[in-house]
């Protein structure tokens, strides 16, 4: 039986549940987008629990088989996942690449496109390899795998155009002589203002929401904020790129429900599933009437992880 939502909004419902128990209550082919960030396979565990690298693929595929069933044929599953270091040595785990391959080969997803999120604000870590022995550099990029149920998911890059750069604006004003670029690309006379530039597959996010409404309200109520929120620009980009108003978006590892807040603002229906009551209760702050609207963004500047390496997912050695 489906539990009652912990709270509802105009467009969404937030459920306190284990996603593996909840998803079987949802109908097949009912979801347009699953956007989520699960606990990563970390050596040093977060407070909400992490699965070991060796067990990770089998653990995650149990969720992924539900995602595949729940998605419409034109639906997408977008997974924000960080890498990890192998315990005790300065080499990287392959788990998130192995997961990608398993999602395609074993569950039947297609890799529509890979994206990367570069967080310039990450602190150097693991300390032993980066700052003590100085044999590695900062790990500041997370993978965002855009997967689809068929090779033809609904998508429209016109819904996520970036503002033109000053150089581009100047060119548009002064005009451009048609020519073949050194790369071989032919720039034709059709070169004209198309309302903005098509984004690339990399997000560059700073750190600009430490004082956002959710944080302020957590602080005011003496509640510890969720320790691994992603920047709202990530779900915002994919929600606008891959769905239309009225479509249903699911975040099955909802945490502080950043995805739900974005969907509410973009008039998408949403379902959030989170098994930790404290996180889900605090996520209601995001929907208070005086919570300011978040600024939509493409590959981007600005994010809301407040304290340097909020998802310090790579630590395989103690910080020295
Ligand atoms: C990385 S956090 C997600 C943070 C979220 N993206 C945000 O911006 O706040 C992963 C969340 O998944 C939750 N979680 C882990 N296993 C779960 C499960 N089986 N069902 C539902 N939630 C789960 C954890 O409690 C944690 O809050």
List the helices and strands and how they pair.
Blueprint: E1 7-8, E2 12-16, H1 19-22, E3 31-36, H2 53-70, E4 71-81, H3 95-107, E5 110-118, H4 127-132, E6 141-148, H5 166-174, E7 179-180, E8 186-187, E9 202-204, H6 213-221, H7 233-242, E10 248-251, H8 258-265, E11 269-274, H9 277-283
Question: What would your notes on this structure say?
Answer:
- The radius of gyration is 20 Å and the shape is globular.
- The protein is an alpha/beta fold.
- The protein has helices spanning 19-22, 53-70, 95-107, 127-132, 166-174, 213-221, 233-242, 258-265, 277-283; strands at residues 7-8, 12-16, 31-36, 71-81, 110-118, 141-148, 179-180, 186-187, 202-204, 248-251, 269-274.
- It contains nine helices and eleven strands.
- The chain has two domains: 7-161 and 198-287, Vaccinia Virus protein VP39 (Rossmann fold); 163-197, no CATH class.
- The strands form two sheets. It has a nine-stranded mixed β-sheet with strand order 1-2-11-10-3-4-6-5-9, with helices on both faces. A two-stranded antiparallel ribbon has the order 7-8.
- Residues 300-320 have low confidence and may be disordered.
- Helix 2 runs parallel beside helix 3 (95-107).
What would you say about this model in short?
26% of the residues lie in helices and 18% in strands.
- CATH top level label of the largest domain: Alpha Beta
Shape: globular
CATH architecture of the largest domain: 3-Layer(aba) Sandwich
Bound molecules: S-adenosylmethionine
CATH topology of the largest domain: Rossmann fold
In whole angstroms, how far apart are the ends?
49 Å
């Amino acid at each position: 039986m489906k539990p009652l939502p912990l709270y509802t909004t105009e467009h969404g419902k937030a459920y306190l549940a284990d996603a593996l128990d909840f998803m079987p209550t949802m109908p097949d082919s009912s979801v347009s987008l699953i956007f989520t960030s699960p606990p990563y396979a970390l050596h040093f565990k977060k407070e909400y629990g992490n699965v070991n690298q060796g067990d990770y693929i089998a653990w995650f595929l149990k969720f992924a088989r539900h995602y595949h069933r729940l998605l419409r044929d034109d639906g997408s599953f977008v997974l924000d996942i960080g890498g990890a270091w192998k315990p005790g040595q300065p080499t990287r785990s392959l788990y998130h690449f192995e997961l990608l391959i398993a999602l395609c080969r074993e569950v039947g997803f297609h890799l529509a496109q890979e994206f990367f999120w570069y967080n310039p604000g990450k602190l150097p870590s693991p300390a032993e390899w980066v700052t003590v022995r100085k044999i590695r550099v900062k790990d500041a990029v997370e993978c965002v795998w855009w997967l689809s149920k068929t090779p033809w998911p609904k998508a429209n890059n016109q819904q996520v155009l970036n503002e033109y750069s000053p150089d581009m604006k100047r060119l548009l004003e002064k005009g451009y002589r048609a020519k073949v670029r050194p790369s071989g690309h032919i720039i034709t006379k059709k070169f004209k203002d198309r309302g903005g530039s098509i984004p690339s597959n990399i997000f560059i996010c700073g750190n600009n929401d430490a004082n956002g409404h959710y944080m302020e309200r957590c602080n005011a109520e003496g509640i510890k904020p969720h320790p691994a929120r992603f920047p709202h620009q990530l779900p915002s980009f994919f929600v606008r790129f891959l769905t239309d108003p009225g479509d249903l978006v699911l975040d099955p590892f909802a945490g502080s429900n950043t995805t739900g807040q974005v969907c509410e603002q973009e008039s998408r229906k949403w379902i959030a599933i989170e098994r930790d009551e404290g996180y889900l209760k605090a996520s209601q702050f995001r929907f208070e009437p005086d919570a300011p609207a978040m600024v939509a963004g493409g590959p981007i500047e600005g994010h809301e992880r407040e304290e340097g390496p909020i998802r310090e997912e790579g630590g395989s050695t103690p910080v020295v």
